[in-house]
């Protein structure tokens, strides 16, 4: 290959590798134009002046865009007229791409989407138009959200429907329809608590109506909040007494309450008191203004020994029975007056039972205060006076105790054993106090009263014998000493009294004498007569009729418990008779009588009618036979 061919091949390769290689001719032409430009500056010097140039219409971009957008809008409008909604939506979208600030284009496209049931796209277009013109299309936008929510609700998509209805309510907060539909979604989804919160917000922010109260009552009923349901029903009837829905709900609540009350009665009769209390609480939630239910629950609390709660319920029952309510008690077969009387009676019994409990714990002052309240409510029950007398007796207020016992004696049978034993002990105690004070005649009268109420206690005769001896009434003193020998021959006081009253005689001499046998026979007769007249079996029927085991129609006991029963009273009597130093300490440290007890005057005690004549004599009155 020669040199010329090799040069051509090299040039061809360079041109194929570097496509922008400039030839020498082109370089020369460029140098020439540059020199020409440097010489003349610009080609405009060869043009005519501006005013002599021909004017050409300038093509403006805005005109083209507007015309094209208008063309798309016309096409979309024509498509809407022919019900070609998809094509219309496309045309309006093209127009919006050219002119995105035109509000009418968004509105037109939203209507096209609405006809296609594309609620989400329609809402988005209307929302854009609402932003461009605030407040102009809020009603239409809210309606679209409402349609979307209703379709979702019909399809069972309750949470999605709730979101749509919530958006509609945000756009038009003054339209209650959208909020109600939100409630419907929450209810259908089972979110009753959220539904109740939403309804509470409405009623707090605005004026509640009877319909809203009924709606909230139904929600409370669904959530088992029966008491609040009753409150809303009552409020609805207060706003609109003719509201049929509220009356229906009220009737349903009353029926549920009566059913629960009957269940409580059955459980009470079978002795299941805690279960009965639960059922009566259910009944009260459905009918919190029924005085009978408070009465029932108060009785249950009393039997369960929850006295504070019992007192509150019984007071509530009495107050409700006095209020002017509907004739619901008469409808149920029990008058308000009967409920009030029963509540007052049970309140008295509750005060008494509470006092008995305090008495058993040694709280005698508190027990007396409770019995004062019971007596204020009911002054015709002798058991209350007996119990208060026991409280005073335990506190050493003998005169107050005697006054209450005497009051009970006037109201009960005179041969009632509970009263007679108490009166005997109190008279003996007061007699000992009088004896220690040197008032022997009063002491003898007190001992005589004690013997009249209980002639079977030898210590009473011993005390009266000593009092007669101080009064120099030897015949009466010797007679009481013989009674003491018969009843209590092992007493430590027998030897000194025998030496003082029958010097030179033995116990057998005194008892075997004609006078001694006569006194023994008289004593046995009087004791037998006292025991027969004080037989608890004979008096049980009368006592039960008065204050022991009366029950009402539903089996609620009306018994009046005593602080000291028969056995406790006997133990108390024996302990008092066996303790000698107690009375001496009481004489030294006895406080002055005060008016902490019953508000009644303490009169002088009446003299005993069985006091023996004060005659002076020697041993000849008994004529004992000496033992050989």
From TrEMBL:
Protein name: Tetratricopeptide repeat protein 16
Biased composition, class Polar residues, residue ranges: 606-618
Ranges occupied by TPR repeats: 69-102, 103-136, 142-175, 291-324, 424-457
Organism: Stegastes partitus
Pfam families cross-referenced by the UniProt entry: TPR_16, TPR_8
Keyword match Ribonucleoprotein: no
Keywords: TPR repeat
InterPro entries the record matches: TPR-like_helical_dom_sf, TPR_rpt
Renumbered residue ranges of the record's region Disordered: 591-628
SUPFAM superfamilies per UniProt: TPR-like
